[in-house]
Write a structure and sequence with these properties.
Layout: E1 2-3, H1 9-19, H2 23-35, H3 49-58, E2 59-60, E3 65-71, E4 77-82, E5 88-95, E6 100-103, E7 107-109, E8 124-127, H4 130-148, E9 154-157, H5 167-177, E10 190-194, H6 198-206, E11 212-216, H7 222-228, H8 237-251, E12 255-261, H9 269-278, E13 284-290, H10 304-316, E14 320-324, H11 337-346
The protein binds S-adenosyl-L-homocysteine (SAH).
């Protein structure tokens, strides 16, 4: 049995044509699978019986189920999803004044083991399928409609996992989310965040992507960055810088840097100087992120005064800087925290 929702749109068309049906059947089926998000081939009501039987005997559908959702005082709503093989992953619905954002996961767990991140502590289980990634957006959008009477305006791939280590599925899912067979969302409203897998950033440029790219930099000093983000031992800042430069030349997309401020680790003026120098590669924006403290963590949040000075310094270098307020801290909305809590409950 094959997972029907882990097949790209063009391949689905080929399967249907090979079966002896016309191309329009593939479009019909794709609309049922994606736009209507069916979870059973029996729901294909306008499709010939023999084609349904063929699909049922060769393929399965891997729809996510929502295990529970919990809303914070600031209306940030965290969702715990369950896969058909009984694994859990997280997604977050984040309403703000001018937008409603879904923050989605790309993998179950994560192999990168960033020192400050709760997901890293869980280890890596597996990649999410195209269908599972799509479902996070579809289900969070339905939740947004039922809670706020509004569709999602943005999607950020900043939940659990490293999206560029699940490259094919992430790009195929974005393709369906932005297609009229799926959710018809503009790619400009989607942001993929990476810890900096340099060769994959080059591949994104070669694939001529239309969505936004965010880099979790967190330090522009190799020694500090390698300490807090082990991936930096594989792809040094120079590799990252070369990849970003190539990416900008090919796509003209302005990158956003995420910079998590950890007190006395990376929040001095010297750190800000290194950041200002590094980000000269191409036009960019910088998001300074407040640390969402996790259990048993060695890190603490940057003191407000230091954050202000850090920001002022960057602005004095004409950089565009935003300080991101932490949302949903009362519901453990930081990456991997809800799963960690659920695991504690299960033990
Ligand atoms: N692997 C990708 C996407 C997932 S992490 C990446 O690294 O970009 C999404 C963002 O959340 C990253 O910038 C990550 O560094 C940050 N993050 C992880 N744990 C955090 C915490 N406890 N508080 C604040 N941000 C955190």
């Amino acid at each position: 049995m094959y997972n029907f929702r882990n097949i790209t749109l063009s391949h689905i068309t080929k399967i249907i044509e090979d079966f002896g049906e016309k191309k329009f059947r593939a479009t019909q089926i794709n609309e049922w699978i994606w736009k209507k998000n069916i979870s059973d081939f029996n729901q294909l009501s306008n499709i010939p019986e023999n084609l349904i039987k063929f699909l049922q005997s060769n393929y399965f559908l891997d729809n996510l189920k929502i295990d529970f959702h919990i809303s914070s005082k600031d209306r940030t709503t965290k969702c715990l999803f369950k896969t058909i093989d009984n694994l859990f992953l997280e997604g977050v619905l984040i309403p703000s004044d001018d937008r409603i954002t879904a923050c989605i996961s790309s993998q179950i767990g994560c192999a990168l083991n960033c020192d400050f991140c709760a997901t890293g502590k869980l280890g890596f289980s597996r990649n999410l399928s195209i269908g599972e990634i799509y479902d996070e957006v579809f289900i969070i959008n339905s939740l947004s409609i039922s809670l706020f009477n509004k569709q999602l305006s943005n999607v950020v791939i900043m939940g659990m996992g490293e999206p560029l280590l699940n490259y094919e599925n992430i790009l195929a899912a974005i393709n369906i989310i932005t297609s009229n067979i799926g959710m018809n969302m503009s790619p400009q409203r989607i942001t993929l965040s990476t810890a900096g897998i340099a060769p994959k950033i080059i591949q994104l440029a070669d694939d001529n992507i239309k969505f936004n790219l965010s880099i979790s930099l967190h330090s522009a000093d190799n020694i500090i960055r390698s300490k807090i983000m082990p991936i930096n031992n594989k792809y040094y800042l120079q590799d990252l810088s070369d990849a970003i430069s190539y990416f900008y030349k090919k796509t003209n997309i302005r990158i956003t840097y995420e910079y998590l401020l950890l007190n006395n680790i990376n929040n001095s003026i010297d750190d800000a100087k290194k950041l200002a120098k590094f980000t000269k590669i191409s036009p960019c924006k910088i998001n300074l992120i407040n640390y969402n403290s996790t259990e048993k963590s060695n890190y603490s949040k940057s003191e407000e005064e230091k954050t202000e000075k850090f920001k002022d310094f960057l602005e004095s270098k004409n950089l565009i800087v935003t300080v991101r307020k932490s949302k949903g801290s009362d519901i453990a909305a930081a990456c991997g925290q809800l799963i960690a809590q659920k695991n504690n409950l299960l033990i």
